[in-house]
Structures are given as structure tokens and as C-alpha cells.
Amino acid sequence: xxxxxxxxxxxxxxxxxxxxxxxxxxxxxxxxxxxxxxxxxxxxxxxxxxxxxxxxxxxxxxxxxxxxxxxxxxxxxxxxxxxxxxxxxxxxxxxxxxxxxxxxxxxxxxxxxxxxxxxxxxxxxxxxxxxxxxxxxxxxxxxxxxxxxxxxxxxxxxxxxxxxxxxxxxxxxxxxxxxxxxxxxxxxxxxxxxxxxxxxxxxxxxxxxxxxxxxxxxxxxxxxxxxxxxxxxxxxxxxxxxxxxxxxxxxxxxxx
Length: 256
Ligand SMILES: Cc1cc2nc3c(=O)[nH]c(=O)nc-3n(C[C@H](O)[C@H](O)[C@H](O)COP(=O)(O)OP(=O)(O)OC[C@H]3O[C@@H](n4cnc5c(N)ncnc54)[C@H](O)[C@@H]3O)c2cc1C
Hints:
The protein is α/β, with parallel strands linked by helices. Helix content is 23%, strand content 25%. The longest helix has 25 residues, at 231-255.
């Protein structure tokens, strides 16, 4: 079993000031809950493989997971990536794969010697920008969050990713920046972009009561599987997804 993600767990846990609705652990801080979860993982010997998954491809009887320049294989995958809460920029969907990238470590080499921009929404964005800077010619770094300030003359808002066949510039209120790629680095990407062919409902993956998706061997749980967005619901669905994945693996073993 491989657990791919962030070794610091989720920023949505560590940033929570006080949690009152996790049964058995009342009034716990997010930081403490994260520490307890981490200690539990250590106790049962589950290591977090600190890797960002760029894409999950269903290959029929197995899955291929793209992690930077590495390709991993799995018989079954449980998706627990959380939910994307920022709106796509104009041009983002249109140029995805043609100058819009969600993964610096996967695509940096494609832009060797070029100018690129990084829209840093995620906690690891600054680190990814540093990695990029070693390969590309120059990096324009924009720290991002969900809130746009009120309109003011001296605030420069990013409006659109523009280009023709591929990206040529990032358009802002004060003009255009020439770039060959815009790296949009969020904590999670829309599930249908991460897993081609998965059935979604907006930002959520469609699941049945056993956390099964439309793709055989692929399960989803937590925020990415729908509302309510709560820790205890994510943990409970994780439990069901794990049992379903084990059931699936046992079934395919019998068929061999
Ligand atoms: C400030 C705040 C306070 C909250 N307070 C409460 C509360 O008091 N009670 C409550 O019940 N809920 C609360 N919530 C909601 C709760 O945080 C979420 O419901 C819960 O974290 C969902 O867990 P999850 O595992 O589904 O997703 P997340 O916690 O979002 O975790 C997803 C993980 O997957 C990783 N990931 C994403 N994409 C990839 C990829 N491609 N490759 C590798 N890793 C990836 C992310 O880095 C992250 O570590 C709060 C949320 C916030 C933001």
C-alpha cells in the first residue's frame, strides 16, 4: 500500500483553530488532531510518500499514476484529494496541456529556457517555484488566494490566460506578461482533470454507497466525494473506501 500526499497532512486540518465535532476528541486543535493522526500512521507503519500525483490513468486492469517524472502502478486507487474551491481562470481549461500546467515537477522540463508564471494557491507553491527556477529562464510568481480586493488603480488583478494554439501571455489589469506556461498550483485539481474518464458532479466525484466510482477499482472519499465537508465524514468514508478496495483486490486475485 502506498499513501501519496503531503507528509504534513492536510492544511485543512492543521489550520483549523478548534474542532468540536470529531467524536471522542472534543475541543481539539487542528494541529493536535494532525499530530495524533500522524502518530497513528507511524504506529501502524504507514509512511506518507511525499509526492504530488499529476494524473491517474485507468489502463483497464491497472492504474498508472504520474508523479513528476515517475510513473507508478496500482491495482486499485482511493482518491481523497479534497475539494477545489477556487474558480478556474479564463483560458485555464482551454489551454490545459498547451501552456497551462498543474504540476511543476511534471512539466518543468518542457519549458527549459522559457519564461513561465506561477499562480501559487497551494502551500507548496513557493517550493515548486524554486524547483522551476532551476530549469526555466525566469519565473513570475503570483501568491494567490480566493479573495479579490476591491477595485483600485494600483491593484493589479490577473484576468486571463491568453494564447492561440498554446499560451503566449498572462493578462492582468496593467498589461500582459509574456510567458510560455502558466503553472496553476492548487492543493487539489478538479477530479476530471486528475483522472480522465471519472464521472463527476461539479467539483465532486460521483460515488455509490460503497464509495465506488464509475471506474472499476477506483474509489473516492472525503470532500472530493461530496458534502458535508467534515473530518468525521471523510474518515468514515475512508474506512468504507478501504474495505471496498480490499474487496475489489480479493475479487481480481480470484480471477487470476
Ligand atoms: C479552516 C478550516 C476549518 C475546518 N474546521 C472543521 C471542523 O471544525 N470540523 C469539521 O468536521 N470539518 C472542518 N473543516 C473541513 C475539513 O477540513 C474537511 O472536511 C476535511 O479536511 C476533508 O478531508 P479530505 O481528506 O477529504 O481532504 P483534505 O483535508 O483537503 O486533504 C486532501 C489531501 O490530499 C492532498 N492532495 C490533493 N491533491 C493531491 C494530488 N494530486 N497528489 C497528492 N496529494 C494530493 C492535499 O495536499 C491534502 O493533503 C475545516 C476546514 C477548514 C479549511
